[in-house]
Known about the structure:
Blueprint: E1 5-7, H1 12-16, E2 23-26, H2 28-42, E3 46-49, H3 53-58, H4 61-67, E4 71-75, E5 83-87, E6 90-94, E7 103-107, E8 110-116, E9 119-120, H5 126-144, E10 152-158, H6 161-176, E11 179-184, E12 190-193, H7 198-201
Parallel strand pairs: 3-6, 8-10, 10-11
Antiparallel strand pairs: 1-2, 2-9, 3-7, 4-5, 5-6, 7-8, 11-12
Helix pairs in contact: 5-6
Amino acid sequence: MGLLTKKHPTDAKRIKGCENGVEYHLTEPAVMLTVAQWLFAQGAHHVSIRPDGMHLKQFDVRAWLETKGFVKTENRGKTSQGGLYRLNDLSIEVIPKSGLGDVTAEVDGKSIEVETKGGCINSTHAGQVSKLRKGLAEAVGQAIGSPRQPDRLMAIVPEHDETRKVADRMIDRCLRAGVEIALASEDGSIAFVGPMISSYQD
Length: 202
């Protein structure tokens, strides 16, 4: 099971805007899982993700985790997907509740909070591109507005020509505000825009 969700739009302009008439969506839960993988690679042992009920209808988080070898050991919330999943010394907590940071973890004693958004990664349709642009702005705004004070704040959205262009334009201001920006790809990789704050604060 991959991270992409394929959609077959019926609107003629949306069909024309993507290759072979098929849209590839990296949904918000898929971006959260991509971030979780990256955090594990950085040394985190426990990651919490917080997709809401609507997000969990977009992407089967439990099925994806199970394909990676994670086993659900505890329930969280009222949905079948919410819970604590374990794989050896790694654990990921799926909490169907928004407003507490989309993804949180601790790496090397530093707390990390990430705001995420999803979107269509292969479309030139104005509406889909606009959603990506707005999603990045919302993720940055939510990160800046966090009432908590983690050591690192990040906004992570799907990689696309438009998100790359907008991120390049806003990265200097975001870094001054303490927010890092990164772009998530369908292969599960994370690419930071500009320097990581931790690289010049340590």
